[in-house]
Amino acid sequence: QVQLVESGGGLVQAGGSLRLSCAASGRTFSIYSMAWFRQAPGKEREFVARITWNSLSTTYGDSVKGRFTISRDYAKNTVYLQMNSLKPEDTADYYCAAEWAGEKYWGRGTQVTVSS
Predict the structure, then answer these.
(1) What pLDDT shows up at residue 27?
(2) 38 has which bridge partners?
(3) What is the pLDDT of residue 57?
(4) Got the DSSP string for the chain?
(5) Strand order, beta sheet including 4-7
(6) Which is nearest to 20 in space by CA: 61, 48, 53?
(7) Going by C-beta distance under 8 Å and a sequence separation of 6 or more, which residues neighbour residue 49?
(8) Nearest to 97 by CA among 62, 70, 65
(9) pLDDT digits (tens), the chain, 116 positions
(10) pLDDT of residue 104
């Protein structure tokens, strides 16, 4: 029902910043809560951040609190993840998800590598 395309990943040094984007297709972007997850090689998928459909609430995983910020632009059908003070342990594939009516729709992911 919704197509998601992530972008903005890359290689960055520890302490640096990146902003990830997730572009959503269609006319129903505003009904979805949007979230970011990440998965490092050999590790389980980890929750990173979520913003509700009306942007009234945001939630963050413990490992990124105070460093990452999720936001959304309804006019652009885009969700962002601003990542500051990056650490090598942030290295992972980052996935965007749209959540509604008990369903999750996933993007294909974008790779983030943080060097020491």
Answers:
(1) 75
(2) 46, 94
(3) 98
(4) ---EEEE--EEEETT--EEEEEEE-SS-GGGSEEEEEEE-TTS--EEEEEE-TTSS-EEE-TTTTTTEEEEEETTTTEEEEEE-S--GGG-EEEEEEEEETTEEEE---EEEEEE-
(5) 4-7, 18-24, 78-83, 68-73
(6) 48
(7) 35, 36, 58, 59, 60, 61, 64, 68, 69, 70, 81
(8) 70
(9) 799 999 999 999 999 999 999 999 977 899 999 999 999 999 999 999 999 999 999 999 999 999 999 999 999 999 999 999 999 999 999 999 999 989 999 999 999 999 99
(10) 94
Q: Give the other-Cβ count within 10 Å of 44's Cβ.
A: 6
d(CA 22, CA 20): 7
> What amino acid occupies position 107?
G
Other C-beta atoms closer than 10 Å to the C-beta of 108 total 11
One-letter amino acid at 115 equals: S
Q: Any bridge partners for residue 83, and if so which?
A: 18, 68
